[in-house]
Amino acid sequence: MNLPESYIPILIQAGVAIGFVAVSLLGAHFLGPKQKKGNSVKNQSWECGAPVEGNARTPFSIKYFLTAVLFVLFDIEIVFFYPYAVNFREFGMEGFLAVLMFVAIFFMAFFYVWKRGALDWDK
């Protein structure tokens, strides 16, 4: 299999990342504390000395999840502006038009979310 030379750093980075995850998971499994089975006082929940109230499984409003997903979506979209900001002279007019199209799609998504009421906290 003949790979272009430009792929070698990417493959090295991917290998290091996968290796780090594997070493971290295996290290946590073998070197971490072992949980004892049973219902002892040590295994019960404890929150700053306050007695436990209610059940942790109570459902949350979908607004919290929607807000988290929207934050991640728009945050990741902003990350794509960095390569353009660093290399905007090299991209020329073609790169500028591509970024304008990207921004237009970004704003269409933002206005869609806004019109659907996902940003209204009072509802």
TrEMBL record:
<dbReference type="Pfam" id="PF00507">
    <property type="entry name" value="Oxidored_q4"/>
</dbReference>
<keyword id="KW-1278">Translocase</keyword>
<dbReference type="InterPro" id="IPR023043">
    <property type="entry name" value="NAD(P)H_OxRDtase_bac/plastid"/>
</dbReference>
<keyword id="KW-0813">Transport</keyword>
<keyword id="KW-1133">Transmembrane helix</keyword>
<keyword id="KW-0520">NAD</keyword>
<comment type="similarity">
    <text>Belongs to the complex I subunit 3 family.</text>
</comment>
<feature type="transmembrane region" description="Helical">
    <location>
        <begin position="6"/>
        <end position="32"/>
    </location>
</feature>
<keyword id="KW-0874">Quinone</keyword>
<comment type="subunit">
    <text>NDH-1 is composed of 14 different subunits. Subunits NuoA, H, J, K, L, M, N constitute the membrane sector of the complex.</text>
</comment>
<keyword id="KW-0472">Membrane</keyword>
<keyword id="KW-0812">Transmembrane</keyword>
<keyword id="KW-1003">Cell membrane</keyword>
<protein>
    <recommendedName>
        <fullName>NADH-quinone oxidoreductase subunit A</fullName>
        <ecNumber>7.1.1.-</ecNumber>
    </recommendedName>
</protein>
<feature type="transmembrane region" description="Helical">
    <location>
        <begin position="96"/>
        <end position="114"/>
    </location>
</feature>
<comment type="function">
    <text>NDH-1 shuttles electrons from NADH, via FMN and iron-sulfur (Fe-S) centers, to quinones in the respiratory chain. The immediate electron acceptor for the enzyme in this species is believed to be a menaquinone. Couples the redox reaction to proton translocation (for every two electrons transferred, four hydrogen ions are translocated across the cytoplasmic membrane), and thus conserves the redox energy in a proton gradient.</text>
</comment>
<dbReference type="InterPro" id="IPR038430">
    <property type="entry name" value="NDAH_ubi_oxred_su3_sf"/>
</dbReference>
<feature type="transmembrane region" description="Helical">
    <location>
        <begin position="64"/>
        <end position="84"/>
    </location>
</feature>
<dbReference type="InterPro" id="IPR000440">
    <property type="entry name" value="NADH_UbQ/plastoQ_OxRdtase_su3"/>
</dbReference>
